[in-house]
């Protein structure tokens, strides 16, 4: 029973099990786990640290954040010529519980795609620059889980550092090919 509203956020079915029960069930067995040299890591898109902990798990928490990047090739103007270059854009994923007041729940017509109960909401801002992600984290989500905001900013800094190193490596390769 999944409903959508204008493509910006999706509502997930109402959670009928506690977060602790979900964590007990998915702690050792889920599709995101990687076992490597005695360490258990997680590839969960809503996990900021990559560690398999309840605090960081996107599956077992009703509130979770995820920051990721996407690299694409596109034409970029460079010194009056269009060249093909890699462009890196970021994705911010937010999972939260949507609270609707009771008076609004009763007043909504049935034809709308708005959830009629307090469901979990998953939203995703795709292909946005790093500055927009920082603004969203610092302004829009300042009252959100306060332990996740510094982790998200730290991960974003690492991704920006990777982006800059990759840009320098691409320029060096282009110079070698010209010579």
Structural key phrases:
single chain; 179 residues; alpha+beta; Enolase-like, domain 1; 5-stranded antiparallel sheet; two-stranded antiparallel ribbon; 7 strands; disordered N terminus
Walk me through what this model shows.
This protein is an alpha+beta fold and 179 residues long. The chain has one domain (3-178): 2-Layer Sandwich (Enolase-like, domain 1), CATH 3.30.390.110. Helix content is 31%, strand content 31%. It is built from 4 helices and 7 strands; from the N terminus they run ββαββββαβαα. It has helices at 19-26, 102-107, 130-140, 148-178, and strands spanning 3-5, 9-12, 33-36, 39-42, 64-78, 81-97, 120-128. The strands form 2 sheets. It has a 5-stranded antiparallel β-sheet, with helices on one face. It has a two-stranded antiparallel ribbon with strand order 3-4. The longest helix has 31 residues, at 148-178.
């Amino acid at each position: 029973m999944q409903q959508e509203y204008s493509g910006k956020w999706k509502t997930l079915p109402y959670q009928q099990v506690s977060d602790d029960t979900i964590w007990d069930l998915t702690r050792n067995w889920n599709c995101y786990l990687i076992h490597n040299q005695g360490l258990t890591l997680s590839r969960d898109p809503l996990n900021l640290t990559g560690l398999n902990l309840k605090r960081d798990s996107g599956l077992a928490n009703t509130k979770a954040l995820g920051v990721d990047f996407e690299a694409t090739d596109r034409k970029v103007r460079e010194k009056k010529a269009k060249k093909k270059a890699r462009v890196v854009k970021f994705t911010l994923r937010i999972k939260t519980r949507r609270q609707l007041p009771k008076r609004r729940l009763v007043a909504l017509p049935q034809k709308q795609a708005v959830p009629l109960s307090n469901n979990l909401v998953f939203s995703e801002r795709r292909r946005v620059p790093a500055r927009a992600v920082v603004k969203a984290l610092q302004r829009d989500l300042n009252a959100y889980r306060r332990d996740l905001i510094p982790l998200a900013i730290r991960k974003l800094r690492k991704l920006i550092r990777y982006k800059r190193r990759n840009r320098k490596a691409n320029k060096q390769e282009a110079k070698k090919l010209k010579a």
